[in-house]
Amino acid sequence: MKNGILFFILMWAAHCSALEIEAKMLAQGSAVLQIDGKQRMLRDGARSPEGVLLVSATSKQAVIEVDGRKRIIGMSRGISTQFRTADKAEIRIASGEGGHFRTKGLINGISVNFLVDTGASTIAMNHFEAERLGIDYRGGTPISVNTANGISKAFLVTLQTVAVGNIVAHQVTAAVSNTESPSVILLGNSYLGQVDLKIDQGVLVLKEK
């Protein structure tokens, strides 16, 4: 692959011809795509006139949505790739120490570590993580939360995108604590409620609805 250009073809079942997309540039929160010969600069959450939605982007990969189906585009040495859409995206997470489920993911296109917490109503993080992610949490809605050390102040915010693997949710509510707790970002039901969830022989399975 020359000049960091990734070529790929997306086949639409509802169309007789393929939609040709060329990724000219991938960056944090944005991508330059050439779609059927027309160059489009897209930011996270933007859709091109051709109907290609840029869900999220980093310097290494982008998540796009075409005709209601999501695909992950990773930088590759190949010249072209034929993409076939799976019926439903599925992520399997093995249990770790103490039976907890931990996984990597993306918040607004930035890499994070999650601890799955089905008892949490929202995604929850401390203010250090929020600052690292560039979240203006102080502009959110002030709330009070119960912690092990009593009641503390927090802020409700809306995350543009949250992804585990290739399962992406949009406009996800999160609570940002004004303290150092929680030490790891809790993946709560503001995201988990948007996926199908089950335990299969000790493995947590998340599946796109």
SSE blueprint:
Blueprint: E1 6-10, E2 19-27, E3 30-35, E4 38-43, E5 52-57, E6 61-66, E7 69-74, E8 82-83, E9 90-94, E10 102-107, E11 110-116, E12 123-126, H1 127-132, E13 141-147, E14 150-164, E15 167-177, E16 185-187, H2 189-192, E17 195-200, E18 203-208
Parallel strand pairs: 1-8, 11-16, 12-15
Antiparallel strand pairs: 1-2, 2-3, 3-4, 5-6, 6-7, 9-18, 10-11, 10-14, 13-14, 14-15, 17-18
What is the structure about, briefly put?
The chain is mostly beta strands. The chain has helices at 127-132, 189-192; strands at residues 6-10, 19-27, 30-35, 38-43, 52-57, 61-66, 69-74, 82-83, 90-94, 102-107, 110-116, 123-126, 141-147, 150-164, 167-177, 185-187, 195-200, 203-208.
The CATH class designation of the largest domain is Mainly Beta
Can you tell me the overall shape? globular
Q: Helix and strand succession?
A: EEEEEEEEEEEEHEEEEHEE
The computed structural class is mainly beta
Give a quick account of the main beta sheet: strands, pairing sense, barrel closure: 7 strands, mixed
Chain-averaged pLDDT: 81
- Count of folded domains: 2
Percent of residues in helices: under 10%
For the record, give the distance between the C-alpha atoms at the N and C termini, rounded to a whole number. Answer: 35 Å
CATH arch. level architecture of the largest domain: Beta Barrel
Assembly state of the chains shown: single chain
